[in-house]
Request: fold
Amino acid sequence: MKWKCKLCVHSSDTRRKLLEHYRLKHSYFSKVTPLPCVFEACICTFASFNALKIHLSRSHQHKGSAGIEVQGGVSLFTCSVCKFNQPFSEETLFSHLRGHLKNHETVPCPFKNCSYTTNVYSSFNAHKSRTHGSALDFSDNVVSTEKVAAPATADFDEEHSLGQPEELSEDVPSHSEDGICETSFWEAQLHQKLASLFLKMQSILHVSERACQDIRATGKGQDLSSAKRRKTYIERHYPVVMPVQYVLDTGHTTVYVPILEMIQEIFKHTDIIDLIKETKNSEKGHFKSHKDGLYYQENDLLSSSELTLPLILYLDDLEIANPLGTSRKIHKLCSVYWVFADLPQKYRSALHVIQLAALCKVTDVQKYGYQNTLGPLFKDLCILEKDGLYIEHLGCTVRGTIFCVVADNLAAHSLAGFVQCFRAGYVCRFCKATHNQIQSLDVFEGEFSPRSKLTHDRDVQDVVQGKLSSQCGVKGDCILRNTLQYFHPTTGFPPDALHDLLEGIVPVELALCIDRMIRLKYFSLDSLNQKIESFSYKGTDATDKPKPISKTFANKKNIGGNGHENSTLLRLLPLIIGDTVPEGDGAWTILMDLKEIVELVLCPIFDEETIQYLQSKILDHRQMLQEVFPDFSLLPKHHFIEHYPHLIRCFGPLVHLWTMRFEGKHRFFKRVVHDAQNFKNVLKTLATRHQYMIAYHLSAQGFLKPHQQTSSVSSVLVSQLPDVAKQDIKQKTDSNIIYATSRMSIDGTLYEVGMFVSVGQEGGLPLFSKVENILIVNNNVTFLCNDYKSFYLEHLRSFELLPGNIAVHSILELNDNLPLCAYNVSGKLLLSPKRFVLPVRK
Reply:
């Protein structure tokens, strides 16, 4: 049989030769593009070549009790305590026996001719280590051989075992056809790997130039022997688009990464263009992406039948020095990133897919304006829109433009030409509401005049002609409007749910309502903080665990915290203190309504019914807030979220256009500055390091992450699975053995045994299922689950779960691809969703 490489077109006659091919050609890039298992039916991937070898030894090397290969069959492990029966591996055997020992059940030693028994975990381990060491001679009644069909295309009868040496001369030609020695070929391969090593150390691992010089290549390969030579070699042999530095004035510069060259390099080295071409609009009445929004469909360029390149621009200030130190604000930078709007969201969220456009100092932006500091970027965007860009992969020219600019409110108003004061006057870029009006009028009453292209252009004209310093909150024209024909500030700046909700309204209302409930003596601040700290957070909740609330929160009128922490606290607060608050309490109702609003806004898909529901919840929340706290002044952000229902129809789901993932990109630049400890020409240093990092990813075998990833699988007998799983598997394969795993990453989302997924609905409520095992059949993932009935608890705005029947579900059956954790609270199993679950319509 032929063993085919999953990363390139190479094929080998034996597994040993394919492994050698992996080691020579692909192993170095495994941190970027994980190495896949050589067996076609196995979807495991690994971060190192050694991990791959260990996996092959454990999962694909079935031997008899004496360590001899089993021909035409597989070794089975049978437990003498509970008659558990599964394909044999040492890990499976001892993991199962230790499970009995943890329950203090008596377990006999599994090795041949040994009569030792014990029910003590530590004694069993000590006996195994002292008496049997690394022996593999197991009792016949523990490990036996059975003739079964192996997983499809998985060859368990490999001629050579993994630990045995094999001659590789057949795979390594010593001479070319004309008799010339091929040594130079292997030297070139080694040279390329050394260059990649230095590139990775500098751009991915952030190793200093001095450290790289200490471990530089010696002897042959002198063009890598110094920092200057390595720089020359990398820029000549890797897809590096170098940043260009422009001088604004003496001592004032801006750095720009040519966006047109960057687009061409990405299309040349990746298959992104194919993914962009595959994206389609959703069915009418559904909003799944920006393409379903009104603004995209009204754009004459983007809505045309021809292939176009809509881009999302991101603008934000970045503090690279200690924000509390003496250098505060001195090294504050304005960063501009961009990403392909039509790239599916699951790929767009990868940080190396988000590209750098420009870096400049905030003080220079304030002094010289966006026109001068970002002029080269605007010029290239104008070329892309008017003339287009030739794409070699397509053999034609493609035009594109900026679909929208993602930014916080301050940056959005600054670039769009609106006033940047939110304490008085006109505070909204979506309508002509004033700060005083938003206290008594809501958006849904229709009292606020919406901004249109026509009225906005008229306001800009009045300001530009010198009639007024500002008109209805407009203080000037947007530079993108002057540059691009198909961009307008009234349709190009979506709201940001991160700053409006998670870092805006949520911490303020949490402080307001918690202070009231403490004064009503439902709980004390100390008891609340004790419960927050002692709560048994699971999964990503443990990563985003909220911090205790400061004792000064009432005076500050804000609990602080970042968006992740505030979201976790608001979502889990009903489980933490819900039983201490009486039903019907006004402050509690405000928080629970706010919890629902956050869940709805973060929903990745909407229909018209869901949008109407969001609108009603926002209105209810406003009325209750003003009723319970009549002296509380609404923030401009309260007004902004009242526009969300309409803006979802215009932009699509707002969670796809928030700043959360873009802000994660800042960490790269902060890390570079922290490791370099050098602020001399810091803009060029940061941009150059970033472009080296992008070149490293582009030169790897895969620019985008695989659809499915796991690092450990085990063989499972189909006969040992529940009947519902047997019936499902029988429709997919004739094999008696399949693979199973406890952890699986699908499109970047991690699924683990013990997590809950939402599958189907009953009586208008989503149904939840607990993942008991993750089965892999013909490279397709199936979840073996325990279905739970759900009951909605209005007071906690959470679901109580009661176990039901065993079932199997595919990834396509899920209402939402985000797995959740359930918590045992006061004897009940409760689940609080992260976002609104819209049932899948069959």
Summary: The radius of gyration is 31 Å. The first strand starts at residue 3 and ends at 4.
